[in-house]
Amino acid sequence: MQLSDDDFKLFELPRRFALDEAELDTRRRALQAQVHPDRFAADGSAAQRLATQWAMRVNAGYRRLKDPLSRAAYLCELHGQPVDVERNTAMPAEFLIQQMQWRESLEESSTAAEVRALEAAVTQQQSLMLARLATLLDHDNDHAAAAAQLRALMFVSRFRQDIDRSLDRLDPQR
Hints:
The protein is built from seven helices and no strands.
């Protein structure tokens, strides 16, 4: 193992979007047990500093692989296709139309029931988009299209926060 290994190599997992989260958790626990700084207390401060670096590396890699959107962004980056949401806002055209419709629906919703219905539709679409992202990454190896799909999914994630705020406003006791 080297600090510069990619997360998949570090956790001895295949470089794929689909992964077994239980296996990831098991490997994280095993790695943390190997590199925990307390194990190196008798080896001096240099060994403890290195162990701390390793522990931080394991934790960062785990967080990146555990979250599906972070994992997808990482895969795109590993394949030379950074998502770069700050400078690149390209998304599938059909999604741009969908997001405008969602925004209008949210703005026009006056009851918690209406917002919950929108939330259900967004959740269903998000599931379909995640399945498409998995196909693009694991089967089609189309990382450019995956990056565009991922940007759209990041929008959905932010939009769901807007839905939550709207529900908090309409139904503060939820």
